[in-house]
Amino acid sequence: MNKNTNSLGLYIACAMLLALSLPVVVALTVLNGTREKQISREMQTLVDEKSESLQHSLVLPVWSLDQAHMRALLQGAMLDSQVVSVEIRDPEEKIIIRQEEPLRRSGNLITRSVPLVMPQQERKLSLGSVQVVMSDAQLQQKLAADKRFQTLVLLAQAVVSLLIIGLLVYRRILAPIGKLTQATERIQHGHFDTRIVLPQHDEIGVLACHMDAMQTSLKALFDEQAAILRNIPAGVLFVRDGRIAFANGAAQTMLGWSTDQLEALPCAQIFQDPLQQAVYVTDKLAREQGAAGEIVLLKRGDGHSFPAELHCAMIDGASPGGQIWVIIDVSERLEAESRIDRLAFYDPVTELPNKTLFLDRLRRGLARQQSQGASIAVFYLEIHRADLSHGLVKADDADHLSKECARRLGACVSVDQTLARLDGEHFALGCEIRSEALADGIRFCEALAHRLTAALAEPQGVAVSFPYSLNIGINILRGQVQSAEEALMQAKLAMVQSLASGRNAFRFFDPAMQALASQRSALEVELREAVAQGQFVVYYQPQVTYEGQVVGAEALVRWMHPSKGMVSPAQFIAVAEQLGLMEEIGHLVLEAICCDLERWQRVGLAQDLVVAVNVSAQEFKVDHFVARFHETIRHHRLHSKAVKVELTESMMIEDVDEVIGKMNDLKSHAVSISLDDFGTGYSSLSYLGRFPIDQIKIDQSFVRQIQTDAATASIIRSIIMLGQSLGLSIIAEGVETEAQRDLLHAQGCTLYQGFWYGRPMPGEQFAALLQTPLPAS
After folding, report:
1. Is residue 745 part of a domain?
2. Quick one: 506 and 601 in the same domain?
3. In Gene Ontology terms, what is a biological process of this protein (predicted)?
4. Is 195 left (phi over 0), alpha (psi -120 to 50) or beta?
5. Is the pLDDT assigned to residue 466 strictly greater than 50?
6. What is the CA radius of gyration of the chain?
């Protein structure tokens, strides 16, 4: 502070000295110039007077050649101390007489020569001339004395002015600035208690007032930030040059270190793997501003580790050594996600992969097949258990037997093969065939089928001796491009064919089994005609609160075939997707929904009704989907909240960023989004946390078993708790009994859809339902 203040004072002093010195120099220069000109004029006048006086006095003495008289006159002229010399010359410029004082030759010499003329009657007679030389030395001495006096006076005035101005500048500028500088140093060190008050009303006083207000605002801001850091549940670390500079209370609690232990602690010491995590993770996150947090293992003070989500950002881009870390303990979250994933991807009884996980792995295998050219075999297994069919085994033993079957089948499977339980007594097996020869592949599959059949042929040993039988369908995929679902379906067709050969039989898939291909072709033609002619109608299934109030409906498309009558979506949706017709079908459905809503609202119905429309992945991927969706609703003068979009989980895992972008576009138009068939696909906290959804719908496969299967009830409870923790609305589909509804209600589900409230119905019937609310029980 002193250095800066002294520098400013020095600058001001130099400026004042320069400003005051310049007028003094100019004044002295002007005065001296004026005085010198005055002296020059005075000397010229004196020389003129002296020479003219001698001119009149010397005419007669020179005429009469009276040298004594001439000398006397010259001596009289020399009495003037300013006269240096006087001489008289004849007409031929010869000196007649001369008087001179050499010691007077100093200063500026001024010479004047005048003619001596004797006037006569007709002409003037030239007698010669008299020359006078005078010196201004005396006047110059007086001028020098005047200069010294004037200089002293002006310098004294400048010094006095400098002192007065300097005092004013110090008191009004430098001293207040010094106080402001001291105040800023206090603020810099976090001291906000001292008021900044200056008893002056000029610009510096106004600046002091603003600085005082700024200090008050900063104090409030720092207090708020300190309160946030104290109370935020996430741990916050400020890191400078690889060391911890600050840790809030939550961070201290998570890490089990005190403030003194954490501050100045190297960051690497809080990581379970310091070399890998401290260098790679933090640098990666610091480079990727705004990126999702990285899951890392952190180490507590007692040496135990815990998983944490670490977010890292640069405090100041110009100072790369500073970072802010936000640490979130995700131990419970990962455990919950693991439980959800386990419930979603694994069979709860046998702990084998379920159908969802099997199809996912099969898709991956098909992708590798396209690049590597290997063959894949898909087995579809159906177990026939005579004990259960005759009612000889209790339910508890049935689960044990299912586990035993899974164990025996699993013993025949290698680690690079996938055995999955699809449902009930149906299993699937996927494996790669390393040989390129088809004959080798067939022999490999036959040997595996015999081992699987033999594994179940022995009695199970649970108080019964009925042997189990197994029918197997085998589909060998040799590079043909098809979906995982189609490959599994073909294996199932082969299994059905094996039933004709009795128990413990297997059959390879034969393309001839697809005799329905012609029917498929006809269906494709009819579907295109249906889209062109608008043969689709919309049915509505009510969505109801526990009290029986109809608050919404799910719109379900039906195909009114001109000759076959109503065609179920299950018979044409998959084909429509493969034909690329879902965009147009979806638009026809949305138009029908909007027309119905517009008509109902004109007569006072459905003012707050929300209709859910299912959007297929194919339709959702269209670039102009959101714009067309919003324009259709706006065209019918409906509020965007009147139509809700239902999306499935599986369509969200492809092109995640694009899906999130379109979902945000829908949300920007106030369109709500529901996640359909929740729990059957890829649901996880990481996805739910990223997707801007408003509602999750519990799949009917869970609702159907809520009364009979404890694992299913646990899944439903976990789904509801998960949705509630994320602030999402929960709706269950497939509610067919009052008991199911009550169990769902007890778990926290608030909306219901199913046959208990009504089957899908035409718009006219649904409009009538809106006028007659359903009873609460």
Report:
1. yes
2. no
3. signal transduction
4. beta
5. no
6. 55
